[in-house]
Structure formats: C-alpha cells, structure tokens
C-alpha cells in the first residue's frame, strides 16, 4: 500500500498555498536542490569534462529512462531521455510513418495539444503526407486502411478526457497502422501500461507529474519490435552507433539509443533523477485509486457549492485522467482571483478553469480548500476586479 503522506513530504510546498497545477509544472522535490548542488560542486566543478565518464553523465539518459520505464509500463533499456517533447514527437511520428511506406495519413484529434499538431503538420508538409484531425470521440471511426500513424495524447490537456489506449491501438493495428502516444498528462498521473496496450511509440515530458523542474528533458519509448528498425528523420550525434568515431555518415545506434539527438542536459537530468526518488515504492494501482478519490471529491464539492461553472471533464472517472476542468464565461479572471487567494490552478482558452491533482502530494484537504475558496470567489464576485482581467504572458 502506497504511503501518500510520506510522498507528500518529499516536496517543497510553500506555506499557505494549495497547489493544483502539477499538470503544468510539478513542485520542487526537496531532494533536487541538494542533488543538483552536489553535482555542481563535486562533478562539474572538480571533474570538468571527465565527468562524462567518471560521473556517468554520458549514460545518464538511459539510466533515468529506466526509472521512468516502470511508471509507463515499459521494460529496462526501452526508454531514453533528452531534448524537448516536440523533438521527441517529431522523431516518433517520423519513424512510425517511415515504417508504413505507401501510406500518407497521420491521424490525430482536436483535443491534442497544439504543439503536437504543429509538429505533425510540418512533418506532413515536408514528406508529402496528410495530417487529418477529427473530434476526440470520432477517432476510432476515422481509422482506416489509409492510415500510417495514429498520433494521440492519451489525456486531453483541456478536458482531462482519457483515450482508451489499448482499444485504439488494437484498432489501428487491425488497419495496418502504428501508434504514437503522448503521455504528457499521463506519466505520473495515471496507470499507464504501454506494453499491455501493445503500443508502438510513446513520448512524454517530465516537468508535470514527474516533477523534473521547468524545461526538464522529455522521454521517448519504442516497442522492442521496432527498436532496431525505426529510422527517425531527425538523427543526431548522440544517436550514432559510434559517436566518437566522428564518421561523416550516419549509422544508427542499436535499439532506443538511436533516438538520442543532442548533448543531454546533465544538470536538468540530475534534478529529474532526484525527483524520481519520490516514486520508489509507489504502486500505479494505488496512484490511480488516489487520483479518482481526489477528482471525484473535487467535482462533487464544486457542483454542490460553486454557482456559474460547468463541468468540462468526463463525469465517468474511467474516462478521465488526473485533472478536472470547469468552464466559466470569465474563466481567466476567476483563476487569477483563485491564485491571489492561494489556490493555484491554471486557465486554458477560451474559458476553462483547469485543476491538476497529483496523488503524490495533493490530499483531500487541498480539495476542500480549493472548493471553499472557489465558492466564495464566485459568490461574492470578487473575481470581477480590473487587475484580474489583465492577461499575463503565461496563463
């Protein structure tokens, strides 16, 4: 049984704040500050460039990848870290498409994060493919024999709607297509099982529910059946079979190592490695049960006491990730008023109040305080002050 009281103690949670925005940026793990400081003092400062060998910086992307693998239903040696999520999306989709020559269609849905769609649109234009976008509920019916790649974010970033990974993957395979799953709002939030779903490729970021810090590196997974055949368009020095031979021609490294591109961000990866300590002993079934408990309590509380908002997430917890969103005509101002009162969620255009529930550190007291504060703000209309309507650069 997972001890969530213990995992909560692993994070620095500022006094007086209720933090429900871990689906955008996780809080700082207490261990990260000391670990990064030690790395800089003992490794970078003293070892200089020899740290690539002596401190293990060069193999860090695989070692950290192995720690994430357990949280997404993957095996050892199947996940590698590095670069940004958009780069990993590009690699995964381009590799999957190349494995289905003669097929032109990349299928996604309108609930996907726009960056994924931008990447796929650019790729499609460059290689003569077609990006086809349908409503989330229309994805299954849009899968046909023209399809090369199904590119889906498992949990919708606005609504929290969760796709059925296993069913959609099976449907894509029946049509002869491959799947790429974006786990940005899944990894560390729900019980992901890539192997059990028989998925083909997956990517994800680590600064949300995995708490790696702002700009933390992304990860990529390739099913072992594709690992030595995948040929992403974007190929870099670190993905070469012998990078220090300095060959002018590219020879891909075996397995997942070929999905490395640039020099790994060692300081950021050190912070992420420290963050992953909080996951030791956490069972994914317990994580999912806790997530459902928190989101169900929040929905019930808001609907009972908060006038003027409408649920924007699936009511059935089986169809929902670990976030809940509500709509309000003045959602941005309402969220700014909430933040001013010490309850931090975020806003997504055009009118969505979004709340992420991270089982490792959120509890029912957080839920109750958020409900009570939101109810008061809506009741007395304290959100309707000029400064709450002023849009900041990041919402």
TrEMBL record:
<keyword id="KW-0663">Pyridoxal phosphate</keyword>
<comment type="similarity">
    <text>Belongs to the kynureninase family.</text>
</comment>
<feature type="binding site">
    <location>
        <position position="185"/>
    </location>
    <ligand>
        <name>pyridoxal 5'-phosphate</name>
    </ligand>
</feature>
<dbReference type="GO" id="GO:0030429">
    <property type="term" value="F:kynureninase activity"/>
</dbReference>
<dbReference type="GO" id="GO:0019805">
    <property type="term" value="P:quinolinate biosynthetic process"/>
</dbReference>
<dbReference type="InterPro" id="IPR015424">
    <property type="entry name" value="PyrdxlP-dep_Trfase"/>
</dbReference>
<feature type="binding site">
    <location>
        <begin position="113"/>
        <end position="116"/>
    </location>
    <ligand>
        <name>pyridoxal 5'-phosphate</name>
    </ligand>
</feature>
<dbReference type="GO" id="GO:0097053">
    <property type="term" value="P:L-kynurenine catabolic process"/>
</dbReference>
<dbReference type="GO" id="GO:0043420">
    <property type="term" value="P:anthranilate metabolic process"/>
</dbReference>
<comment type="function">
    <text>Catalyzes the cleavage of L-kynurenine (L-Kyn) and L-3-hydroxykynurenine (L-3OHKyn) into anthranilic acid (AA) and 3-hydroxyanthranilic acid (3-OHAA), respectively.</text>
</comment>
<dbReference type="GO" id="GO:0030170">
    <property type="term" value="F:pyridoxal phosphate binding"/>
</dbReference>
<feature type="binding site">
    <location>
        <position position="207"/>
    </location>
    <ligand>
        <name>pyridoxal 5'-phosphate</name>
    </ligand>
</feature>
<comment type="pathway">
    <text>Amino-acid degradation; L-kynurenine degradation; L-alanine and anthranilate from L-kynurenine: step 1/1.</text>
</comment>
<feature type="binding site">
    <location>
        <position position="153"/>
    </location>
    <ligand>
        <name>pyridoxal 5'-phosphate</name>
    </ligand>
</feature>
<keyword id="KW-0662">Pyridine nucleotide biosynthesis</keyword>
<feature type="binding site">
    <location>
        <position position="263"/>
    </location>
    <ligand>
        <name>pyridoxal 5'-phosphate</name>
    </ligand>
</feature>
<feature type="binding site">
    <location>
        <position position="86"/>
    </location>
    <ligand>
        <name>pyridoxal 5'-phosphate</name>
    </ligand>
</feature>
<feature type="binding site">
    <location>
        <position position="85"/>
    </location>
    <ligand>
        <name>pyridoxal 5'-phosphate</name>
    </ligand>
</feature>
<dbReference type="GO" id="GO:0019441">
    <property type="term" value="P:L-tryptophan catabolic process to kynurenine"/>
</dbReference>
<protein>
    <recommendedName>
        <fullName>Kynureninase</fullName>
        <ecNumber>3.7.1.3</ecNumber>
    </recommendedName>
</protein>
<feature type="binding site">
    <location>
        <position position="182"/>
    </location>
    <ligand>
        <name>pyridoxal 5'-phosphate</name>
    </ligand>
</feature>
<dbReference type="GO" id="GO:0009435">
    <property type="term" value="P:NAD+ biosynthetic process"/>
</dbReference>
<comment type="pathway">
    <text>Cofactor biosynthesis; NAD(+) biosynthesis; quinolinate from L-kynurenine: step 2/3.</text>
</comment>
<keyword id="KW-0378">Hydrolase</keyword>
<feature type="binding site">
    <location>
        <position position="237"/>
    </location>
    <ligand>
        <name>pyridoxal 5'-phosphate</name>
    </ligand>
</feature>
<dbReference type="Pfam" id="PF22580">
    <property type="entry name" value="KYNU_C"/>
</dbReference>
<dbReference type="GO" id="GO:0005737">
    <property type="term" value="C:cytoplasm"/>
</dbReference>
<dbReference type="InterPro" id="IPR010111">
    <property type="entry name" value="Kynureninase"/>
</dbReference>
<dbReference type="InterPro" id="IPR015422">
    <property type="entry name" value="PyrdxlP-dep_Trfase_small"/>
</dbReference>
<feature type="modified residue" description="N6-(pyridoxal phosphate)lysine">
    <location>
        <position position="208"/>
    </location>
</feature>
<dbReference type="InterPro" id="IPR015421">
    <property type="entry name" value="PyrdxlP-dep_Trfase_major"/>
</dbReference>
<comment type="subunit">
    <text>Homodimer.</text>
</comment>
């Amino acid at each position: 049984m997972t001890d969530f009281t213990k995992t909560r103690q692993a994070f620095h949670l500022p006094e007086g704040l209720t933090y429900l925005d871990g689906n955008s940026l996780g809080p700082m793990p207490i261990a990260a500050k000391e670990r990064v400081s030690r790395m800089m003092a003992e490794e970078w400062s003293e070892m200089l460039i020899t740290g690539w060998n002596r401190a293990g910086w060069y193999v860090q992307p695989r070692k950290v990848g192995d720690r994430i693998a357990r949280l997404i239903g993957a095996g050892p040696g199947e996940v590698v870290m590095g670069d940004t999520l958009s780069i990993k999306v590009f690699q995964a989709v381009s590799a999957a498409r190349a494995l289905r020559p003669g097929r032109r269609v990349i299928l996604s849905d309108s609930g996907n994060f726009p960056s994924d769609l931008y990447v796929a649109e650019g790729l499609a234009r460059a290689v003569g493919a077609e990006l086809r976008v349908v409503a989330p509920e229309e994805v299954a019916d849009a899968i046909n024999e023209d399809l090369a790649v199904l590119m889906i974010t498992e949990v919708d970033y606005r609504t929290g709607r969760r796709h059925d990974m296993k069913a959609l993957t099976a449907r894509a395979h029946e049509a002869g297509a491959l799947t790429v799953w974006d786990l940005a709002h899944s990894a560390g939030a729900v019980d992901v099982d890539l192997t059990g779903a028989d998925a083909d490729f997956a990517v994800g970021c680590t600064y949300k529910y995995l708490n790696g810090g702002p700009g933390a590196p992304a990860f990529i997974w390739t099913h072992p059946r594709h690992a030595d055949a995948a040929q992403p368009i974007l190929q870099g020095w670190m993905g070469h079979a012998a990078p220090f031979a300095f060959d002018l021609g590219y020879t891909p490294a075996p397995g997942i190592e070929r999905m490395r591109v640039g020099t790994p961000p060692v300081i950021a990866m050190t912070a992420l490695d420290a963050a992953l300590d909080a996951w030791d002993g956490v069972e994914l079934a317990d994580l999912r049960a806790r997530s459902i408990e928190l989101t169900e309590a929040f929905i019930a509380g808001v609907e009972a006491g908060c006038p003027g908002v409408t649920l924007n997430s699936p009511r059935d917890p089986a169809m929902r990730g670990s976030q809940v969103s509500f709509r309000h005509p003045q959602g941005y101002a309402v969220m700014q008023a909430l933040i001013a009162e010490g309850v931090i969620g975020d806003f997504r255009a055009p009118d969505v109040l979004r709340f992420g529930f991270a089982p490792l550190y959120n509890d029912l007291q957080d839920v109750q305080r958020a409900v009570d504060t939101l109810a008061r703000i809506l009741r007395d209309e304290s959100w309707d002050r000029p400064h709450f309507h002023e849009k900041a650069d990041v919402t």
